[in-house]
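Notebook entry, structure prediction.
Reason for the run: the old model in the group folder had no record of what sequence produced it. Starting over properly, with the input documented here first.
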Amino acid sequence: LTHLHLPTILYTLHSRFDADRIYTYTGPILLALNPFQRLSLYTDDTLRAYALAGIAEMNGHSVPEPLPPHVYAIADQGYRAMVNPVAPEQPRDQSVLISGESGAGKTETTKIIMNYLARISNPHTDGAAAIAATEDVAPVAHQVLMSNPVLEALGNARTVRNDNSSRFGKFIEIIFRDNDRPAASHSSIPASFTLSGARIRTFLLERVRVAKHDDGERSFHIFYMLFSDGLQGYDKGAFLLDDMEDFSYLNQSDTWDRRDGLLDVDLMEELLTALRDMDFSQEEIDGIFRAAAAVLWLGNVEFEDRAAGTADGAFVAPQAADALANAAELLGVDAEALTTALCFRQTVVGAETYQNQIDANTATHSRDALAKFFYQGIFEHTVRRVNSVIGAGVAPSSAAAAEAGTTPALRRQASKIGYTESFIGLLDIFGFETFHVNGFEQFLINYANESLQHFFNKYVFETEQQEYEKENISWTYIKFADNKATLDLIESRAGGVLGLLDEQCLAPGGTDLRFLEGLIRKHGGAASAQDPEARFFVTNAMRAAQSFGVVHYAGRVAYDVEEFVEKNRDTLRAEVQALLGGSKDELVRAY
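New structure, fully documented this time:
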């Protein structure tokens, strides 16, 4: 661009988008605009062109005509930098950061990159062609790709903006091995790495979606898939399921289908194929479905107070008796024990244990907490099981080694096992979110994006300008919005949002209201809303509604403090945990 300012940038992006050129470079960064339709940008010929261009450049040959911006080029750059570092001190491990607001296309981009890496690293393909047909990728690469339908079924949902929104973040390490090169070798000949496995780390599953979602949205895909005709050969009676519309965790939004043309029946068939290809046993598959059905039945367990308007103790409503029995059966626990766990709270005083009655409202919260924690257990156990398959042939990561009680030295066992192992990491994180009502989940999501924006600023602006200074290049200083003040507001140990929240979690009788009052005392009341430099704001109306605001890099967001303290504690009552730990079902105990 001859003139670099906002109007020319937006005009250029708009013009390219109208011509189906959804990718645009800005320095080393690729901008992508989601077309919300299938474009012919990912054909075999296109993939082959970028792969061959990457090989040519790595071997020092010029490419006759530069290829247009494409996510394939980003994936190829990462692969070539891993295969043939430009300098001895450059690490082989690479990472691709995929960020953007909700609905920007991050999940699809991650899958496109994974597919590209699987196909160009196939050990059975000709090095010159550097491409395999999708169905011809190596078995381990196929299993890595099959992890996508599994994670999407359990962790994705329809939102207002996106019919297949990832409601969790993930970091995927795609592992590559150079079997021909000893680990101690320092040969200048480019290595030929093949995909040997992967490791997946997940975080921030939006488990609140199990019990609550807004109008026009759905809960997690798996719940709706259970009612589809994709369960060929299954007796749905084994999951005790009736009509989908009868489940309160699903019928609160009156939204049942997806708008993107994908059907739950097809997605269920794809999920079953993926689970079987990843060596899940029939017992394990049944266990996932039974556990998901148990969550739905928990949502139908309703409570009443023994004396209306008092806290004399809750009991399971007569009309919910069948729901309780079905939930207990699917969880492998006694129905009476489940009732006690939901309607009473245990208190330990010295060597004595007392059971205290709770009211119907508290019992409902207890039920939802159990459903959310149990579903998170299903998700995390399935991710661990996926990792055991796709990571069977790779050395443990530092994190995995630490979890296993071993040393991080296991991360590189090359001297013992005779090969070099490296990875390309794919970070797929929630996009920045702002809704009509924003809670604890949106706060954490936006905090993560705030941190990424700070990294982006340092990488794009500060680091580049330091290079100009080092090389004595004449340049004009570029001003950019530094969001460090917002991060300090959130992170500061002395009065930061997270610090004050932790104080309430540790204090006896800590509440959401006390947390809000502490924030206002530290950062100012209504006057803060008029201060252009303030990163914290609250109006009298917001204070009355028990909310506070943060000025993020992407805009001002108000957060409702309801359940901030409870969600930050992130605990499940001991008696409820003990109930699940005593289940007759081995898989429930594992969750």
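Summary: The longest helix spans residues 360-390.
The old model has been moved to the deprecated folder.
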